[in-house]
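Dear H.,

Thanks for agreeing to be a second pair of eyes. The structure we're designing against is below in token form, covering all 237 positions.
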């Protein structure tokens, strides 16, 4: 009789476990259909984004994972081969502005921790993250001022970004000409002009091109990004 009871309990326990697993699977599918992202998924998205930001600096996968976990305490699994902008937009849809700002600042902290100019590709990854989270370039520029890092195109060692304090003397009309705009454009007009140019000259578009073509595109990308950052930092609207 006792043996029958034991078998009954084991069977009941297995049935309960199967029921819980099925219920969790159904709930997960319903959440996905409704566009709901649970905290664990948000952590995984955040970890994946930060992992790719660090990797863009030329860090190996294992080292990048250690840096993210040590710097953030997030131990969630990461997904490789993601599109930073698309994943950042997904994260933005399910988080508050404070959470988005925190993620961007965390990414900057990880990049700035090396205390050296970062590669252009890593900076463009930060730009993709910033735009995907719904911020303008000046948000990233302000964080660069706070954490004191700058970027350099290592394909052209001589092309080091100018110190921030030296950019204050730039002529505003010259900066506007870099973006192809004149007069007194609004912030929205500046952003539209910048996004159009940065799409044309984004380094990812020239992957596999000759070194000369890549260098020319990188130089132009840096020029328009610096001009846009400086113009937005000067504005009060």
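And this is the sequence the design step returned. I haven't edited it by hand at all.
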């Amino acid at each position: 009789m006792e043996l029958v009871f034991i078998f009954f309990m084991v069977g009941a326990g297995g049935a309960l476990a199967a029921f819980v697993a099925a219920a969790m699977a159904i709930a997960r599918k319903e959440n996905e259909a409704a566009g709901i992202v649970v905290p664990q998924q948000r952590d995984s998205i955040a970890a994946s984004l930060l992992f790719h930001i660090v990797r863009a600096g030329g860090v190996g996968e294992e080292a990048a994972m250690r840096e993210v976990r040590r710097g953030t305490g997030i131990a969630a699994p990461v997904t490789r081969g993601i599109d930073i902008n698309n994943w950042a937009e997904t994260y933005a849809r399910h988080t508050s502005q404070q959470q988005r700002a925190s993620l961007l600042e965390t990414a900057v902290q990880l990049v700035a921790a090396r205390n050296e100019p970062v590669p252009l590709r890593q900076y463009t990854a930060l730009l993709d993250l910033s735009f995907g989270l719904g911020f303008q370039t000046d948000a990233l520029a302000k964080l660069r001022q706070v954490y004191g890092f700058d970027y350099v195109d290592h394909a052209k060692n001589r092309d080091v970004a100018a110190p921030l304090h030296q950019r204050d003397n730039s002529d505003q009309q010259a900066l506007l000409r870099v973006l192809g705009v004149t007069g007194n454009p609004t912030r929205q007009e500046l952003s539209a002009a910048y996004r159009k140019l940065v799409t044309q000259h984004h380094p990812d578009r020239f992957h596999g091109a000759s070194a000369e073509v890549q260098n020319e595109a990188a130089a132009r990308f840096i020029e328009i990004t610096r001009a846009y950052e400086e113009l937005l930092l000067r504005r009060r609207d």
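Two observations from my side: The CA atoms of residues 43 and 76 lie 6 Å apart. The chain is about 65% helix and 0% strand.

Warmly,
E.
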